[in-house]
Amino acid sequence: MTHTQPINSVQVIGSQNAHNAITLSSDGTMCSWSLDNLGAPRERIRVCETPSTPTGMFDLFPTCMDFFAGDQNNFVVGTEVGHIYTDQRHSSRTVPLEGRSIRRPQPFSGHSTMVSGIATHPSPSAISFSHIFLSSSLDWTVRLWSVRDNTPLHTFDDYSECVYGVDWSPLHPALFAAVDGTGRIDVWNLIDDIEVPTARCRTQFTSAMNKVKWDTTGSFLAAGDDEGHVHVCAVAEPLASPGPEDAARLAHVLAGLKATSSSANQTVFP
Length: 270
Description:
The chain is mainly β. 9% of the residues lie in helices and 41% in strands. The protein has helices at residues 237-240, 246-265, and strands at residues 7-14, 19-25, 29-34, 43-46, 62-67, 74-79, 84-88, 96-97, 100-101, 104-108, 115-120, 132-137, 142-146, 154-156, 163-168, 175-180, 184-189, 199-202, 209-214, 220-225, 230-234. β5 and β6 form a beta hairpin.
């Protein structure tokens, strides 16, 4: 038996010579497939399910997922109600991420409605940022998270429509792209500004953008819209290419966001 509900996420994990396709359907079923044999899955599990709750931890249906960089076991899942979960394909294995296990039956709470996209950090620099990830939502925001905290490090709210997709640059550690229902394609640089995008473009079409993906060189963006068009944008080299100190600068920015977030979440007693 494979999926019985719509598949909303597909990802290929593994090395160049040994990889599997992972599919996730709206009922929380995750299947692992060998690309040499697509007749039946190699593995079928329920995500975010624990022995105490045999029907699963989800309030409603999962909508998107992403695996952590270089990790075939740990992943993040967004849901229809706005909650985000981390889980493991093989939960009997305790796989630490940045010194801690990331299995998290309690949700990351922040979005007020459906999570439309999840992007874990690819960690292309010498400094590891594998503990952070982005989420986009129909609540008109993009949020930055760390697996160490259950509240967002920062909320990017310079949007007037649903945000349908988000993706980190595979080259520049501080760069990510997001697309929304007005047809905008935004590129954010966390080092330059966390309030407004560093670059923004609109196509000749007025259709909503619902998917975005960087190419492997970090120099081009592909965005898909709800009318079936695919738009390819070149990213200028000064923006696309990181400087020698950019990873350290990003670490400083994240530390500042962490301090601000912690202060905001503290309860003050009289």
